[in-house]
Amino acid sequence: LLRCFPSSRWTMVGEPVNLNEFQELAREALPKMYYDFYAGGAEDQYTLEENMEAFRRIMIQPRILVDVSRIDLSTNVLGYNISAPILIAPTALHKLAHPEGEVVTARAAAACKTIMALSFTSSCTLEEVASSCNAVRFFQIYVYKRRDLSALLVQRAERNGYKALVLTADSPRVGRKEADIKNKMILPKLKNTERFLSLEASSDNVSDLEAFTKETKDASFWWKDNGSNLAAFAKETKDASFCWKDIEWLSTITNMPILIKGLLTREDAIKAVKVGVAGIVVSNHGGRQLDYAPATITVLEEVVQAVGGRIPVFFDGGVRRGTDVFKALALGAQAVLIGRPVIYGLAAKGEYGVRQVIKMLKDELELTMALSGCTSVKAITRRHVRTERERL
Ligand code: FNR
């Protein structure tokens, strides 16, 4: 029965009161093809569901009789003060949810005083997003087979004031999302594909970019493989040979701190520390790549212990409640990122919707902290939660 979570559990009346209700609003607002693209996961969607389900098996252990008349949610991420430990994860193609796309999301991030990680597969250029808001922005990348083009993109991000590079490392290939296959999910406006890939020509090296985008627009390119042109594009262009030793190359082409996103084991955590990155994001890509990868909250502590405080550990996957944020912080995350709920807010109510989603999570986190006897983010400790193993 619990597996029905989350969509079937809520019947909405009036204004949304939690993030799950925003999902329902988005389902109503979006064409089925786009809703499925955003909401779906790989294959059996086991990991997608488990990300949320695993949070439900962790209990919170409150302390009583603490003065909680003032609660401070603020925190610091890579030197930037933000209003709460809740960041916006990089997610693709916001223009499928809202005509203005990522610039709207970025404005909401600025209004909420938090950080937005712009996706490599953004439907606005990184320049458009940079000029539309004063939020602290990170830029997420996959590395192309064409390293020179990846380098160009990284340099553009740096020039436009992006503060960190998030290397997503969990998808050398793209997971099979069966709803996209059935829906024959394709990008609209193929003519503008380069915009969807952040590659729209900037002043430098236009000829290279033109050649590349022409190549990728070649008709033979689409409808291969599993019927989704995004998946086909990724397979053709991503460098599946990119590995640990190549992180060094990445660090030679940028001064931005590098975060590795998509890590799930102690072995990889140790490697990440060794190669000298500035931080890691424990993530399974919201269950969209490797199905049956563990729920992120179940491996967070293992990774945190392996890192031993040497670099910050961030977390994403299945965060839908303030209690989820609290649990992730208690298990050692410095902050969490949220993916789908931001898109649902954007689809349902534009910038206001994204702000509402973040505000709801912040309000819930604040209440959870008050009821648990924690007056600041730092006051949340491992002893404030009890995992399934400890309950046996
Ligand atoms: C993603 N995610 C993602 N990650 C990334 O590094 N680059 C990307 O372009 C995308 N695109 C993307 C699209 C959509 C529609 C979703 C739902 C997710 C993964 C994302 O950053 C994050 O890891 C998950 O979304 C976190 O899980 P929740 O919060 O969606 O449960």
UniProtKB/TrEMBL annotation:
Major site of localization recorded for this protein: other
Residues engaged in binding glyoxylate: Y142, H285, R288
Annotated GO CC locations: peroxisome
Keyword match Nucleotidyltransferase: no
EC number: 1.1.3.15
Pfam families, per database record: FMN_dh
Active-site residues (renumbered): H285 (proton acceptor)
Highest taxon of source: Eukaryota
Keyword flag Flavoprotein: yes
Reported cofactor(s): FMN
Molecular function as annotated in GO: (S)-2-hydroxy-acid oxidase activity; FMN binding
Keyword field: Flavoprotein, FMN, Oxidoreductase, Peroxisome
Domain FMN hydroxy acid dehydrogenase: 11-390
Binding, FMN: 90-92, 119, 140, 168, 261, 283, 316-320, 339-340
Compartment(s) of residence: Peroxisome
PANTHER family in UniProt: PEROXISOMAL (S)-2-HYDROXYACID OXIDASE GLO3 (PTHR10578:SF67), S -2-HYDROXY-ACID OXIDASE-RELATED (PTHR10578)
Similarity annotation: Belongs to the FMN-dependent alpha-hydroxy acid dehydrogenase family.
Protein name per the record: (S)-2-hydroxy-acid oxidase
